[in-house]
Amino acid sequence: MDLPAGLEWRVTPGLTPYAEALADMEARAAAIRAGDAGELVWLLEHPPLYTAGTSADPAELFNPDGLPVFAAGRGGRYTYHGPGQRVGYVLLDLDRRGRDVRRFVHALEGWIIATLARLGLPAHRAPGRIGIWTPRGGTEAKIGAIGVRVRRWVTLHGFAVNLDPELSHFSGIVPCGIADFPVTSLFDMGVSAGQERLDLALRQGLCEFLATLGEGGEKG
Q1: Of 87, 99, 129, 177, which is most buried by a Cβ count within 10 Å?
Q2: Which of 42, 12, 48, 13 is nearest to 27 (CA)?
Q3: Which pLDDT belongs to residue 76?
Q4: Residue 1: pLDDT band with limits 50, 70, 90
Q5: What is the pLDDT of residues 78-113, one digit of tens each?
Q6: What residues contact residue 56 under an 8 Å CB cut-off, 6+ apart?
């Protein structure tokens, strides 16, 4: 599966400290805007931690285990990252792919939904609820999170898919401000899929995801 010209696909093994990843992502976004670097899709894992988006409400952070909390700079509220969760940082240049943030978020959601379908798990968007959802026990459960930022028409942050994280850590927050639905994982749903299989499914859908964004958007 060849990559589009000028786009880097990076997979970092082990656990990447959040502050280190955030600094690297900020630097790469600035380099993309300056024309000094290509676009990037970066797959990694973090140690257990919570991140606070720009709309985070302190009343939604309980944190009984005392996990570190980081200001992420992305949109949204509180979310959890930790081992067993695949995080994808998606740094694209919307100046050439079209200055449409809603279309970018919709395409990102579609990419994750299609990826989960390749792994045998049905997933969908839910009107009025951010994230990726799957049917579970007569209700719905959240299987993936979406949180993005756009700076000078370069996208930052991206998505998180729950492979087999410690689900009890989600009880330390109100995940993305949604208290009425549980959080689940591929393992919890009976789907056996490790990082390599998920990464492959993501890569198989990469070109389709990018095609929904297009090229030659508004310049300026």
Answers
A1: 87
A2: 42
A3: 86
A4: low
A5: 999 999 999 999 999 999 999 999 999 999 999 999
A6: 76, 77, 78
Q: Are strands 78-81 and 49-52 parallel, antiparallel or unpaired?
A: antiparallel
Look-up: residue for tokens 């395409």? 107
Residue 204 has phi, psi (to 5 degrees) of: -60, -30
Could you tell me where the DSSP H helices lie in 67-173? 94-97, 101-118
Say whether pTM exceeds 0.85.
yes
| E strand residue ranges, the chain | 7-15, 39-45, 49-52, 69-71, 78-81, 85-91, 124-126, 129-136, 139-151, 154-162
- The structure tokens 């589009």 sit at 4
Q: Estimate to the nearest angstrom the gap between the alpha carbon of 13 and the chain centroid.
A: 17
Mean pLDDT of 163-172: 96
CA distance 63 to 45: 20
Q: Do 82 and 46 form a contact (C-beta atoms < 8 A)?
A: yes
Structure tokens at 40: 């990037």
Known catalytic residues? 176
- Name the 3-class secondary structure at 51: strand
Task: Count CB atoms within 10 A of the CB of residue 66.
Answer: 7
Task: Tell me the pLDDT of the chain averaged across its residues.
Answer: 94
